[in-house]
Each structure stands twice: as C-alpha cells, then as structure tokens.
C-alpha cells in the first residue's frame, strides 16, 4: 500500500505545485489534469511493477490472505442450483478490490470533475490567452465573433424601441 500511495501522491504533489504557480494559464491547467489522468490510467496497467517494487522492500513475499483458510458461504436448503462462487487469489483480490478501486476513484470522482471545470472555463475564455499563437486572420475572426452579439443586441433594442413608439 505504501508504494502505491507514494507513487500516486508524489505525482499529485508535483502537479499541485505546478497548478499553484502564479503564471499558469488555463490550457496548462487542463493539460496538467489530463496528464495526471493519463498517469493514473497507465499506473492501473502497471500493477505487476508496483507489486515487485513493494516486494523489494519487505521480506514477506506472499499476501496475508494467502495463508488464511478460504471462507465458504453457507448454502440454504431452498437454493436451487449451487452457483460456484468466484474465488480470487489473494493477489488478484488485492489488485481488484484495493489497487483498481484507488485508481478508479481518483480518476472518475476527483480528476475528471476538476478537469471538466477547467475545460469548460477554457472553452469559454481560452481564446484570450491564445492571441499570440493565432494568425492575423484568426484574430480578426475572433474580434468579429465578439462584435456580433453586441451588434445583434443593439439591433434588437432598436427594433423593440421602434415597435413600441
């Protein structure tokens, strides 16, 4: 567990420090969150490496549950056909119930929600920080697009005032 959390928290800390910089812009924040999600999804596929690293720190090479006797569910007399219970090895049970759950909860609940908020703000106001990278034609197009709503609202106000008088 220590190796898993150390790996995750080390990356979270580096990302957090980058996000707290004064000169960070929206696109950088979105990219940082995206890279964190990508890192966690890749970590999910690297369980074997994480397990080997953890085993290198301790003398015990097997899971505690592997030495315990297996528990069997009591079957009642009114149960029709006995369906075989899925039995996982201690390693697979840890991988599925703990490792995957940690990674999936971090990605699904926390990071995607935060990244979605930053993406929404960037979608609305991101063009303000990207003027330097745009061509002159794209700059003119953005200026025109920003003028259109004002022009339309002025036309609407003028037409409403003409109709009421």
Can you put this structure into words, describing what you see?
The chain is mainly alpha-helical and 165 residues long. The protein folds into two domains: 1-67 and 90-131; 134-165. The chain contains five helices and no strands. Helix 1 runs antiparallel to helix 2 (26-44) and helix 2 runs antiparallel to helix 4 (90-125). The N and C termini lie far apart (76 Å). The mean pLDDT is 77.
Question: Mind sketching the topology for me?
Answer:
Elements: H1 2-19, H2 26-44, H3 47-57, H4 90-125, H5 136-164
Mean pLDDT rating? 77
Form type: elongated
N-to-C terminal Cα separation, in Å?
76 Å
The share of residues in extended strands comes to under 5%
Count of DSSP strands: 0
Number of helices: 5
Helix fraction bin: 55-70%
| Count of the domains | 2
Q: What are the secondary-structure elements, in order, as H or E?
A: HHHHH
Largest sheet entry: none
- Report the C-alpha radius of gyration, rounded: 28 Å
Uncertain ranges: none
Structural class: mainly alpha
